[in-house]
Design a protein that fits this description.
single chain; globular; 318 residues; mainly alpha; Serine Threonine Protein Phosphatase 5, Tetratricopeptide repeat
């Protein structure tokens, strides 16, 4: 009886082993619940990665932080300290902004840290789109040129914002960036980045169309406007007090092209630029898109919380 039991056990074990061998080996399966880089090397995959780069424009793409900490409008870092905007509410609400308002910058200020994180996450996603495009199969040649131009435009925007904030920054392009190597982006910040930022806008300007079929994507005119803005930021040497007339003249030449193109004009009413009903109007060269009807409050742009009373009956925060 004992011998029969052992024999049946061996047969059952062998059968189980054969059954397991006939199925996929669970030790070599792709991770469930996430895409592999190879799976994203398709037209749909590349477009999705590019959309992820766009997602960093509104500041909602990072975990565990509010959009006003890193969205590119820079209400916190530009509007408040310049007195164009008022922080509002009370001292206990977003105290990091009160320090920024007073130019009392501390290394521990979470808003400043997250601004850096947000901008360079945008750079990383732009580079990821460019690298994925190089390895993708089946992407239409004309669309591939557009994807590259859009990604370089976005990378230029994120580096531009970082250059405005910190001056000495690393410039991380798709040749440096390696998604699988966290050390790849540890590059020195000892070189001037303006020429590299300009090159991204110039490359985008040469390829992007006059008008996009999908609202929110940059046009040739948007790339030109950002290039002119980059020139203007170099138009005055703070250290010497001397104007850089060459950069200012280059900016004016581009801006004259935009104005004289007939594509844009001032709206009859200034507030139309802030009215949902008249968004993306004739005065707009480039707009970050928000979802007013989204169930996620941040998607409707709380990046500019304004200075409203937030006690009853309104409540915080917009």
């Amino acid at each position: 009886m004992k011998n029969k039991f052992i024999k049946y056990s061996l047969v059952a074990g062998l059968s189980l082993g054969l059954a397991t061998a006939c199925t996929d080996n669970f030790l070599t399966r792709e991770p469930q619940g996430q895409y592999s880089p190879t799976a994203l090397q398709t037209p749909t995959g590349v477009e999705g990665i590019l959309l992820g780069a766009y997602g960093m424009l509104d500041g909602t793409g990072l975990d565990g932080q509010a959009p006003w900490e890193n969205e590119i409008q820079s209400w916190v870092f530009g509007g408040i300290p310049s007195d164009d905007a008022y922080k509002g509410t009370d001292a206990g609400d977003q105290p990091e902004e009160s320090f920024i308002e007073k130019y009392d910058f501390q290394p521990t200020n979470g808003h400043i840290k997250n601004k850096w994180r947000g901008l360079f996450k945008g750079v990383a996603r732009s580079n990821d789109a460019l690298n994925s495009l190089k390895n993708a199969k089946g992407v239409n040649a004309d669309r591939a040129k557009q994807i590259e131009a859009e990604a370089r435009f976005l990378r230029g925007v994120f580096h531009f914002e970082a250059r405005k904030m910190w001056k000495n920054i690393p410039f991380i392009d798709d040749k440096i960036f390696d998604l699988n190597n966290t050390e790849s982006t540890k590059v020195p910040n000892d070189k001037e980045t303006w020429p590299l930022i300009e090159a991204d806008f110039q490359a985008a300007m040469a390829v992007l169309p006059d008008k996009q079929e999908e609202v929110g994507r940059p046009t040739k005119w948007a790339a030109m406007a950002f290039l002119a803005k980059a020139y203007m930021f170099q138009g005055w040497n703070i250290s010497t007090g001397v104007a850089n007339t060459a950069k200012l003249q280059a900016a004016k030449a581009i801006l004259d092209q935009i104005v004289n193109s007939g594509k844009f004009r001032l709206t009859p009413k200034f507030y139309s630029n802030f009215d949902v009903a008249t968004r993306n109007n004739e005065e707009s060269v480039f707009e970050v898109q928000y979802a007013v009807s989204s169930a996620t409050g941040d998607a409707s742009d709380q990046g500019m919380g304004l200075a409203h009373p937030y006690a009853s009956p309104w409540g915080c925060c917009g």
